[in-house]
Amino acid sequence: MYGVSQSEAAAAPADPNALDRETMIVAAVVLLGAIMSILDTTIVNVAIDRLSIDFHASLTTIQWVVTGYTLALAAVIPATGWAADRFGTKRIYIVSLLLFMLGSALCAAAWSAGSLIAFRVLQGVGGGMIMPAVMTIMTKKAGPHRMGRVMGILGVPMLVAPILGPILGGWLVDDVSWRWIFLINIPIGVVAVILAQIVLEKDTPQPSERLDWLGMALLSPGLTLFIFGLAESASGGFGQFKSWAPIVVGLALIVTFFAHSWRKGGRALIDIKTFTHTRAGAAAGTFLLFAIAFFGALLLVPLYYQTVRGASALEAGLLLAPQGIGAMITMPLAGKLTDRYGPNRWPACGIPLLVIGIAPFAFVTAHTSYVLLCGFSFVLGLGMGFSMMPTMTAAMQAVPAAAIARTSTAMNIIRQGGASIGTAILSVILTAEVSSHIAAANGGGLESLRSLSPTQQAAALEPLASSFASTFVWAMVLLGIAFIPALAMALGKWETAAAAPDGEAAAPDGAHVVLE
Q: Does the structure show a pLDDT above 90 at 414?
């Protein structure tokens, strides 16, 4: 009677916010790319020891397999939103998958540590564009009013990766070849590209504002040079030109970027002023310290299990599973609590759990109980789930609506940049501690111990464990310091986000939290 057929009425969802079949199909297609990208950030950590052996490379060199990837992620995040507007989201998503697959194939064919690091950077360029493109596709498809449900679906790979990644990586390294931790991306990527070409809607590019190319040209090289200088300090300290010169130049570029951002304001890559008078500053400080300590420790934990305890890569992956399970429990819970009560208090609850979870590693020996370590790894995962997304959400809700996208960009750069700094710094500290605790290392770090006789290696186990413990102390201290801005975020009397230009409230929807 009213122009609506019975079949159309039956097909209409009872809940107006429910995801229809077409949207679910699109979500399933883009999830393939998301899973591939996020898995790769966790799958490589358990292979670091094997890569160091096969390429006869030091820890401070081979850690660039992780650091180079995360730096590339941070570098391309700001450009992705602009590129999606300029060329179309579907094109950018498919190009990002192809770049990721090309980088994966080249990584699998790597013949040296240097070639592997270079190919990981290319892989990171593709991987850095995947998740922002996925979020943009789903935002347009589902609409802002259904982003809560979409985030629930797209959160799946974030929950699964910390558990599945190390276990899958360990099995491939032990029973197949480390090259397959990269080759496994190829068949997944081929399927993802074909389905994306078939399912995703045709692009309608809508060029928007110009990208802050000068800001990118200052910040990305600045971070890279700064971290490179830190890594080079492992051999000879900071007195060498190859260490202090990149650090000085990198810091100069970063400081120049801050000055550029202050002058340019809302048109800058990151608007520094946004972080000076809102809760976003406390959130950024918490997030940076969290990323440095947590992601740096993620590199060291499997190394401890493999080099001190003699665990295989698969066993190290299984021993990391409790941490992923802990995060899987608290991430959805933190999301619900944030929606109901706001994000301010939860990082101050999560950071102490992180400190408690990492504490036994700061006193670890060559014979510390696996049950004890796995139990506290579970607590570490609980803390991660309570800390990460609420901190990011707190920053998003602290700024005006017009600044949300750039604040999201900034928080993601902080996360990836902090992870790069953390892996570099803790690798340098561990190398220095090994040289300090074990005279036979002769300043060569972990790799020099492999040339020792079995008797000498057995005698070096306790000093080696002490080296790891001393390094974990630094991670624990950084997490403890992160509690200060987290507490300020929870107890401070912060102004709410400024009104948008049209006078409407600037509370962000879920899409903005991880859009970049």
A: no
- CA diameter of the chain: 89
| DSSP for 14-69, written as a single string | SSTTSPPHHHHHHHHHHHHHHHHHHHHHHHSGGGHHHHHHHTT--HHHHTHHHHHH
Sequence-separated (6 or more) residues with CB below 8 Å from residue 514: 131, 135, 151, 392, 408, 412
pTM: 0.79
pLDDT of residue 322: 92
What structural domains and CATH numbers belong to the chain? 18-200 (1.20.1250.20), 269-498+508-516 (1.20.1250.20)
What is the C-alpha to C-alpha distance for residues 436 and 463, in angstroms, rounded to an integer? 9
**Exposed, middle or buried, 430 (CB in 10 Å: 0-12/13-18/19+)?**
buried
388 Cβ contact partners less than 8 Å away, ≥ 6 residues apart? 290, 331, 350
The most confident of 149-153, 206-210, 255-259, 328-332, by mean pLDDT: 255-259
Q: CA-to-CA distance for 338 and 331, rounded, in angstroms?
A: 10
* Nearest-angstrom CA–CA distance, 149 and 127: 24
Q: Is the pLDDT of residue 459 over 60?
A: yes
